[in-house]
Design brief:
- There is one protein chain.
- This protein has 157 residues and is mostly helical.
- The chain folds into two domains: 2-97, no CATH class; 106-157.
- It is 68% helix and 4% strand.
- It has a two-stranded antiparallel ribbon.
- Helix 1 runs antiparallel to helix 2 (27-46) and helix 1 (10-21) packs parallel to helix 4.
- The longest helix has 48 residues, at 109-156.
């Protein structure tokens, strides 16, 4: 697998990836991917692997860029051409759709669930208002009746 490398450095790898992606995908996708691979390479080196071994395990940055470009084009076609979603990246250098983000289609269940919470709060608020309207006047009438009885007994005494 080391034939393509010819002793490529981390910076050369990232520059090559950046060059291959630039103009092919939105700049946010370029930035996201270059940052991902920079962080991945740094993390692997910090864990004790050599830069050579890390870059060798990733493979050719042109092939990685091609995979990212193809994935973005498929995503753009699937999304109706409106943009690119989030991606996750495997240790094998593959690009995978991040299922936690749902920029198109139905909102996540959490958002639909929060709609139910809002509805429940509104219903409880309406019930509270109805309780105040109908229950408190009842208490008011009982208090008024008790006050009248008290006054009546007080006059008699």
């Amino acid at each position: 697998m080391g034939k393509w490398r010819s002793e490529m450095t981390k910076q050369e790898f990232l520059d090559n990836l950046n060059d291959q992606l630039s103009g092919e995908v939105p700049s946010s996708v370029v930035f996201e991917n270059v940052n991902y691979y920079r962080n991945y390479i740094d993390g692997e080196i910090n864990s004790g692997k050599s830069e050579y071994d890390v870059l060798d395990s990733l493979g050719n940055p042109r092939l990685i860029a091609k995979t990212i470009i193809d994935t973005c084009q498929i995503e753009q076609q699937t999304a109706g051409g409106d943009g690119f979603g989030g991606y996750t990246y495997g240790e094998d250098g593959g690009v995978y759709r991040d299922e936690t983000e749902q920029p198109y289609g139905k909102p996540p269940k959490l958002l639909r669930f929060s709609g139910w919470i809002v509805l429940a709060v509104v219903v409880l608020f309406i019930l509270l208002i109805l309780n105040i309207i109908f229950f408190l006047p009842g208490i008011f009438w009982w208090l008024l009746l008790a006050w009248m009885v008290y006054r009546w007994f007080r006059r008699r005494a």
